From TrEMBL:
This is CopG family transcriptional regulator. GO terms for biological process: regulation of DNA-templated transcription. It comes from Rhodoblastus acidophilus (Rhodopseudomonas acidophila). PANTHER family: BLL4998 PROTEIN. Pfam families: RHH_8. InterPro entries: Arc_rbn_hlx_hlx (IPR013321), RHH_8 (IPR041088), Ribbon_hlx_hlx (IPR010985). It comes from the Bacteria.
Amino acid sequence: MAGRVEEFRPRADSEKITINLGYVDLGQIDLLVQEGFYSNRTDFIRTAIRNQLDRHNDAVKQSVARRQLDLGLRRYGRRELEAARDAGEMLHIQVLGLAVIEPDVTPELARAAIGALHVLGALQASPEVKVALRDRLS
């Protein structure tokens, strides 16, 4: 019976990160995986991260409220940015999670409508829009 080969595709709702671990820590993780506590290294690391986030949940909630951050996924499209520009307003975008500037937004429109951009997490936008907003990112 031939093995099944699947093409690796990152999840659309996640971002890959790279970490360096000491050999002893890595060995301990591998031992826990072999003993069946976790299905793989990634499962262990995700669980450890979630546990730490749960531990600091109240502090995160307070910071989100204090900083007035949009939490989760926030999309910005051409219509919303045109409305802000036409009203003479500049958006000050603050997102904890994923900020998406839709593909229909031109670099010129982004510069005309976005005064500041602060993203804790990930920003998805065309390379041209990212370059146009480079001086507004914090």
